[in-house]
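sorry for the late reply, my laptop died twice this morning and i had to redo everyting from scratch. anyway the thing you sent over, i finally got around to it. pasting the sequence first so we're on the same page, its 351 residues, then the predicted structure underneath. double check i copied it right bc i was rushing
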Amino acid sequence: MADRLSLEKLEKLKKQALGAVARAHARKALDELRVRYLGRKSEINTLLRGLAELSLEEKREIGARANEIKQELEAEFAAWESAALKRELEQGDKPDLTLPGTPAHFGRRHPLNIVAGRILKVFEGMGFKYVEGSEIESDENNFTMLNMPEDHPAREMQDTFYLQNVEGRGEDAGKLLLRTHTTPVWIPVMKNAPPPYRVVSCGKVFRRDAIDATHLPFFHQIDAFAVDENCSMADLKSTLEIWARELFGPQTQIRFRPSYFPFTEPSCEVEVRCFLCQGKTCSTCKNGWIEMLGAGMIHPAILERLGHDPKKWRGFAFGLGLERVAMVAWGIPDIRLFYENDLRFLEQFSL
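ok and here's the structure:
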């Protein structure tokens, strides 16, 4: 019975282990001690095999004490490592401040940010003020105020994301939606200050489009408008000519083609002479011209609805899809590439 497991043997083994840890002078020695006293085949576990020979009460007492000893040894090992780390830091070499620093690795701007920055810079240079709009809009601002009545097809559920239970909004939750265009930014601007205005806005818009190479349920638009006493289509054309030449080159030409938008009258599609083939016809343009944006003179009914006399004030407006411009400018075949976070794609673009 001399080899019978007892508390005294456990305490003796603990004292032996603590002494060995105190005498350890290297991490390798400490790791060996950890395996010896706390590993799966440690001396403590070997000793505990003798529990089978003890009574139930002795098993409980010695088993509990064995767990306490393991915890005490773990704490001692951790204290040794903490003290060793402190010594290493205190005794380590001081940094040489005369050595050249390690250059920071900077990421790249997203291609859509690059295009947006270039476009906004052009308009801000022409005196347009940047205004941020809300992605959650009321049905009234998104449609009614912009000449889209209750029976307009854009209000259909299959075209628009309507919202419910929106917290923190005073409007009826059933009349809130994710904006389908950035044009609603006109409303607060024209309501809260008198003309003249020159405003540009950029942001995400949402539509229930089927996903394919040219469509997503969300994309980005840039919308701009100007209101003054003498605004005309000539002002609109000169503004867009400056924009096109700044963005695509000094020889770029534009042309207007009649179109329809509910918030402008007259309305037009603006096409840019293909800057890839110089109008000679290529796989991108097909006919020498690239459709780029929609534009027109602000509808008199909208000006009147917002409290401005359409006989005194006139304005022009235009809007373009950011992804559309980027895809044409860089020959990108699929709109989904912008959102896949593939570094092989994103690293190709720079300012």
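Residues 7-89 form one domain.
thats about all i looked at so far, will dig more tmrw
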